[in-house]
Amino acid sequence: MGRPAAGRILTHPLDTFPFAEGAELTRRLEGIFGDLTRLTCMDLGCGPADTVIARQVLEIPWRRLISVEAFIPYVYRLREKTVRAAHHDIREVRIESIFSTFVAREADLALMIDVLEHFPRREALRLLVQLETFVSRGIVLFVPIGDVPQDDLDQNALQRHRSRWQPEELARLGYEVEVYEGFHGQLTPPATAAWAIKRLGK
Q1: Is the N-terminal amide bond of 120 cis, ω within 30° of 0?
Q2: Which member of 22, 25, 80, 135 has the lowest number of beta carbons within 10 Å of its beta carbon?
Q3: CATH number, domain 9-199, options 2.40.50.140, 3.90.1300.10, 3.40.50.150, 3.40.190.10
Q4: pLDDT by residue (tens digit) across 29-81?
């Protein structure tokens, strides 16, 4: 199959964009993948869906939404949320288990919103390679850029950050990367974040 062609990198400098623009998901996906009501989305490591981006995932009228979350307290909170998908499944499994839990190509899209950095680098890269043959339309990442330390949260060891990422390496993997400098303004210093999206097939 060979190495993928490098994706492009678009950078939005600090203070040149509103937070809502950097966090916007729905139109971003529609512009690449078309009518989302026809798609099955697998939201990997979805958490309790309390963030701005996570809430957008629940508000999209997917054909089917599969929420994958291993931390049971988050699953309980997720079950209380309103979801617009025609069908919604919640699976209480680790992300690494999806390849034996689901059928390949059962989902069109895989989302990993603030998830990749929770894996050691080698495991993260292996997961991305596996996903390319597991979903049919694309992979969507949202990831902090550079050194953004985080320890356990909510007594959840899965919340620890175990790897760091740069736009250039995501682009080398064939992702189209859009960088928002200082996006995480609640952190000191503000942390940059990026969308990285890879379209698969047609």
Answers
A1: no
A2: 80
A3: 3.40.50.150
A4: 999 999 999 999 999 999 999 999 999 999 999 999 999 999 999 999 999 99
Listed residue (70, 63, 88) closest to 80, CA to CA: 88
> What is the pTM for the complete model shown?
0.91
Q: Which amino acid is at 17?
A: F
What is the distance, to the nearest Å, from the Cα of residue 164 to the centroid of all Cα atoms in its chain?
A: 15
pLDDT per residue as tens digits for the range 89-125: 999 999 999 999 999 999 999 999 999 998 999 999 9
User: Helix (H) and strand (E) counts for the chain?
Assistant: 7, 8
Residue 78: DSSP 8-state: H
